[in-house]
Amino acid sequence: MNTDSPLAATPAEDRPRVLLVDDDEVNLMLTSAALRERGFEVAEVSSGAEALGRLDDVAPDMVVLDALMPDMDGFATCQALRARPGYGLLPVLMLTGLDDDASIDRAYRAGATDFFVKSTQWSLLAGRLRYMLRASRTRIELERSKFKLARAQDLARMGSFDWKRASATEGRLGSLWLSPEALRVLGRGAGDRIELRALLRMVGPAHRRGLIRMLTEVVAHNAVLATDVAVTLFDGRPRIIHVEAEAEFEHGHGVGYTGVFQDVTDRRVAEDRIRHLANFDALTGLPNRRQLIWRTERALEQARRLNHNAALLLIDLDRFKNVNDTLGHAAGDELLMEVARRLRSCVRHSEQVMEGALEAAGARSHRTLEAVGRLGGDEFVALLPEVGDETDAQRVAQRILDALREPILVAGQECFCTASVGIAMFPRDGLNLVDLMRNSDVAMYAAKSAGRNAATAYSPHLGGRGRDKIELESHLHKAIERNELVLYYQPKIDVRSAKMVGAEALMRWNRNGVLVPPGDFIPLAEETGLIVPLSEWAVKEAARQARIWQQNFGFADSIAVNLPSRLFERSDLVENIHQSVSAYGVPHKAILLEITENNLMKDLHNVSLSLHRLNEIGVEISIDDFGTGYSSLAYLTTLPISELKIDRSFVRDLGITPQSSAVVSAIIALARSLGLRVIAEGVENLRQMEVLHRLGCGVMQGFLFSKPLPPDDLEAWLRQTVLPRKAPWIGAVTDAEGVAPRIVGRT
Amino acid sequence: MQSAAVPPPNAPDADSEAAAWATVLDQDALNRLRELDPDGKSGLLRRVLATYVQSLGRLLDQLAVARAASDLQGLRHVAHTLKSSSASVGALQLSALCADIERRVREGTGEGLDSRLDAMALEGRRILDALHPTSPAA
Predict the structure, then answer these.
(1) Which residues on chain B are in Cβ contact (under 8 Å) with A122?
(2) Would you state the pLDDT for residue A494?
(3) 3-state class (DSSP) for residue A496
(4) What value does the mean pLDDT take over residues A466-491?
(5) Could you tell me which of A257, A227, A241, A370 has the C-alpha nearest to residue A311?
(6) Is B32 a domain residue?
(7) Final residue before a domain boundary, out of A218, A236, A269
(8) A60 CA: distance to closest CA in chain B (Å)
């Protein structure tokens, strides 16, 4: 149901209140009746004085004034009304005669909003009044929002401006209008006028030309203007003003700009600080990793475009850790700061490079990228954005080495802190940041390996000795003293007697709680020579373990220790082993040395002497991985060897390929005829065990019996599995052949 | 202004009254006035005409005084006021005379003013007689 009736009275708020002033009663009565009829609320007064008297009381939305009245006429009344505070915007309609142009003019001058020719066309009058009211409301809202805007702009230290293009009437620089708020931003009063010329003079001479060039460019294209300008206010205060403006068009032609100023000094100061914190190392003030990456990428872009060389120098302090460890971190920081200061002097170090500045600096701008930065820790990078060739980079590297040659005073002590420098050249050693960083790293480590305090340029053959390896190496160095190395033991089993007849010691590295498998560090240890102390330790540790087991369960067999061939070359090997076993009071034969067939053959001549001497003192030798190398069978007859160890690859295929069992039976036959013991490794299942046993090999090791175990676990295994005869392999062969278990003596 | 007598509440019959008005007032103007008070509830037309008659009588008196004293300002005020109120009630001839007089006074064109003032007084009196036969001035 529609409850709205067309006859419903106009709601009070929509009944505009009119103060009607006319000295003629007839007109007053008629006009008033006509307006009421059309939805107005009317207060009638018959003179100007009465109107002014009732103004506050009636609080009209508008005033309708007869122009010609005795005593105080409409013009005087209007003027008096306008003079009252709060009535500046009240709509006033002046009623004039039809033929009275002079009155119309006077009406406007007296402050009337509009005029209307008296007539009996009431609806015209009502329409005019409604229109005037709407316009007035819009105007009041506009004034209110202008006021709000002004206040908001003041709070935001912002102001508006308009600029009209240069023309015959506007002068060469055009004309500039600034809102009172904009003037306040610039430290001026509301009434002041500032011409564009004066405004430009507020910009320092260093930036003025660039700014004018930019403005000219923007205006030429009617482009959007958005820039920050550093200015000095008239009172000398430096401020940063953000200017943002858009072109204004008339008939498709740009006629000027309209926009805002904002004082963004505080924000910029904060932003600059954040930017600095994000891009510079807090300790040394040098560009940090992030900033270095940014600079390097820019420099490489430029080098690519302009087709020149660039260089990246990785600088790592030698033995910086010693300073930290012995003098403390504060001293370490002090040292880094001094090093940073010296490094900075070795290049054309530019402190601040910002995105915008780079473009502005023109073609040689990449030069400003040159810098020394700190990657972190004791690592620095020198970026040379343009070099002739490698010798330029070498020269800078030398300068760096020279700069660090002088002792540095930290914590009251003179420290010598040399550096190793790795040089990578763009494009020769890499086309991108990642490659250049990696290769400068490789070169730097080459310099370190070669004795430190030197610079090395990257070359491909340096590759491979990367950071990881060096790190591993340096940790491996300390592994022994930190007790990070452990021996695991895998038992050797005589399957007929179901007894343990020895064990092989296998090295493990417990690095920060993680067991590093031998494959990951033994090759490195061999490469670096660390294998020697490692092996010496292993012999000593095995002797110690043999002693413990002797005491714990009467262990009287041998523990096999793997030795690389280079250890056999050492003249003190025999003496070392002698001392190791003596130290724990175990017989020499408690240690069995395993050497791989390959190692043995490689160094046969050097090794054989040692083997003889070891044999003399009672240490037995086993040939590991037998069958995989190219053995000269002749040596087997001349070397003092006690045991052949059948390689796991043959064991694996036993029962699968006939060839493998053929090889295994040949090795067993060979051993038997030479009077050597034979042992199979890598035995993983009962089938392999049975075949080996059938072929005549009774001693084995492998996962079927046990994986390599820590010594305590091995004892537990013996106690819980072997002695109670609980394992599946126990009895398997004896039952098959009906042979009673017996203790097997050594062959 | 309010001191003069008001029209009698027990008016003569409407038809003869309307016929009397029609002799001096424009019918269109009267219709427009009736539209302002369509159902005649507030008796607007009667009140307006009573007010007009009162003011007309007073202004005609003022006119005579101003003429005697050659008071141009006074003449102009009377002409101006009567011009618009007469137009409002439909006394078009009187309104036109007033407009003419007002213009001549304003522009200082004294010629022919006397004959027009005579005509104005005559027309004013005619209207008074037609609208208010019992008026004391009649």
Answers:
(1) 32, 36
(2) 93
(3) coil
(4) 79
(5) A370
(6) yes
(7) A269
(8) 23
SS (H, E, C) A719-743: HHHHCCCCCCCCCHHHHHHCCCCCC
Of the candidates A239, A145, A245, the residue with the CA atom closest to the CA atom of residue A188? A239
Q: Distance from B49 to chain A by nearest Cα, in Å?
A: 8
pLDDT at A262 over 60: yes
Q: CA-to-CA distance for A455 and A23, rounded, in angstroms?
A: 108
If one counts the domains in chain B, the total is 1
Considering only alpha carbons, which residue of chain B is nearest residue A27?
A: B85
Rounded to a whole number of angstroms, the distance from the CA of A199 to the nearest CA of chain B is 57
The tokens 């092989």 sit on which residue?
Answer: A504
Q: Are residues A525 and A563 both part of a single domain?
A: yes
Task: For this complex, say whether ipTM is above 0.85.
Answer: no
**Does residue B137 lie in a domain region?**
no
CATH number where A120 lies: 3.40.50.2300
Position A467 scores a pLDDT of 58
Residues A424-456: pLDDT tens digits? 999 999 999 999 998 999 899 888 877 788 899
The interface residues of chain B toward chain A in range 56-115, judged by CB-CB distance below 8 A, are 77, 80-81, 83-85, 87-89, 99, 102-103
CA B63 to chain A, closest CA, distance in angstroms equals 15
Residue of B nearest to A73 (CA): B77
Yes or no: say if A328 and A320 are a contact pair by the CB < 8 Å rule. no
Top pLDDT among A207 and A362 is at A207
Q: Looking at the domain assignment, is residue A477 inside a domain?
A: no
pLDDT in the model for residue A362: 57
Ranges A81-95, A339-353, A502-516: which has the least confidence? A339-353
Last residue of a domain, one of A117, A149, A181: A149
Residues A228-242 have a mean pLDDT of 88
Instruction: Label residue B43 by pLDDT band (50, 70, 90).
Output: confident
* A640 upstream amide cis, omega within 30 of 0: no
**Contact residues on chain B for A34, CB-CB shorter than 8 A:** 36
For residue A143, the model assigns a pLDDT of: 86
Helix/strand/coil for A158? strand
Q: Is residue A215 part of a domain?
A: yes
- Of A370 and A501, which is predicted with more confidence? A501
A552 & A666 share domain: yes
Please state, in angstroms and rounded to a whole number, the distance separating the CA atoms of residues A508 and A582: 25
- Token representation of residue A368: 């400003």
pTM listed for this prediction: 0.42
Task: Specify whether A102 is located in the same domain as A23.
Answer: yes
DSSP A275-310: HHHHHB-TTT-SB-HHHHHHHHHHHHHHHHHHT-EE
Please say if the pLDDT value at position B5 is more than 60. Answer: no
Whether the CB of B34 is below 8 Å from some CB of chain A: the reply is no
* Stretch (H or E) spanning B117: helix B113-131
Q: Is the pLDDT of residue B44 over 80?
A: yes
Residues A219 and A341 in one domain: no
Task: Tell me, yes or no, whether A416 and A497 share the same domain.
Answer: no
Q: Find the domain containing A364 and state its range.
A: 283-465
**How far apart are the C-alpha atoms of A488 and A601, rounded to whole Å?**
27
A104 vs A524, residue with greater confidence: A104
Residue A642 CA to residue A621 CA, distance in Å, equals 6
What's the pLDDT at A744? 38
Residues 6+ apart with CB under 8 A from A402: none
Average pLDDT of chain A? 85
Pairing of strands A499-511, A485-494: antiparallel
Q: What is the 3-state secondary structure (H, E, C) of A692-722?
A: HHHHCCCEEECCCCCCCECHHHHHHHHHHHH
Q: Are the Cβ atoms of B84 and A27 closer than 8 angstroms?
A: yes
Q: What is the pLDDT of residue A739?
A: 42
C-alpha A628/C-alpha A477 separation (Å) is 32
Query: Is residue A471 included in any domain, yes or no?
Result: no
- In one-letter notation, the amino acid at residue A612 is H
Q: Which residue has the tokens 């097997």?
A: A744
